[in-house]
Amino acid sequence: MPTHIRRRRPASPVTIVEHEEPDEGEILDISEFLAEHHPNNDRYMRSLEHIQRQIMSVTHQLRPKQVNMLKSVFAGLNFAEAARLHNASPPTVSNLVKSKLGSDLLTALQYHQVMLEGPNLAQRRNMLWRIAQRSEEIDPKITIAAITEVNKMTFAQHAAKTAEFNTQTPNTAGPEIRIPQDLLPAGELDK
Questions:
Q1: What is the rounded distance in angstroms from the CA atom of residue 78 to the CA atom of residue 72?
Q2: For helices 100-117 and 64-74, what crossing angle results, to 10°?
Q3: What is the pTM for the complete model shown?
Q4: N or C: which end of the chain has fewer CB within 10 A?
Q5: Cα(61)–Cα(43) distance, rounded to whole angstroms?
Q6: Quick check: 52 and 112 in contact, CB under 8 A?
Q7: Please, is 82 exposed, middle or buried when counting C-beta atoms within 10 Å of its C-beta (0-12, 13-18, 19+)?
Q8: Which pLDDT tens digit goes with each residue over 97-154?
């Protein structure tokens, strides 16, 4: 078996370059190097990353089995089902959910889910209503546009409910009543 010979690097003199410390006025703020309109600099994205870091921080403080049990409870399983799934007892799952770390993880997961889903219908309506109220005196056109959007949302929701109702009931025209002519012949008013 061949032996490897280690060669020494030639010794090079270390040179020290003198430099002056910059004045505080010369140091640029880091925000000047960041693109203001970059998607990662958006407030929503920073909030999302913040909650993800919180989830990871709490997750690292728990054992993997505990994290999986909490995720099962978050997914909708009751304590008995989560315990059966992870070979634990229901009181163990209950105690884990009630613990500080357990409740912190469940809260962070819920907050993360809401952030990903975005505003629901009621929140969007409320925002439009606030816009309408604030701009009523200043710019009535904005108020009218906001109320128009609320009306569109309401009509769309009503149309969706009506369409769902119509698909559930087979006959939407009402009951059809047929009277034999030999029992009750048509009269003057039927013409």
A1: 8
A2: 50
A3: 0.53
A4: N
A5: 27
A6: yes
A7: buried
A8: 999 999 999 999 999 998 888 878 888 888 889 999 999 899 999 999 999 998 888 8
